[in-house]
Specification:
- Helices cover about 70% and strands about 0% of the residues.
- The protein is mainly α.
- Helix 2 crosses helix 3 and helix 2 crosses helix 4.
- It is elongated, with a radius of gyration of 14 Å.
- It starts with a helix and ends in a 9-residue tail after the last helix.
- It comes from Flavobacterium hankyongi.
- This is HTH cro/C1-type domain-containing protein.
């Protein structure tokens, strides 16, 4: 049961991280996925899949996207954590 509880939280964290990145992307790149991908050093398909929640995010990709957004990775994951099941 603990694993399912943790997995649900991890899924929610992934969605929130993606939402935060998407929000900053819209502000700084005005929806231009090609420009964002180029600055992040990744493929536009990766960005598209990420925003459609179809692709997971590696630590490497998180750092690249944060760099492209002029953020620290810690800014993106601030206040996110896994809570213990009661």
């Amino acid at each position: 049961m603990q694993f399912c509880y943790m997995q649900k939280q991890l899924d929610d964290i992934k969605k929130e991280v993606t939402r935060r990145i998407h929000q900053e992307f819209l502000k700084k790149f005005d929806g231009n996925k090609t420009h964002f991908a180029k600055k992040a050093g990744c493929d536009e398909k990766t960005i598209r899949l990420l925003f459609d929640f179809g692709q997971g995010m590696t630590l490497n990709l998180l750092f690249k996207l944060a760099f492209a957004l002029d953020l620290n990775p810690s800014d993106i994951i601030k206040d996110l954590s896994i809570k213990k099941e009661d």
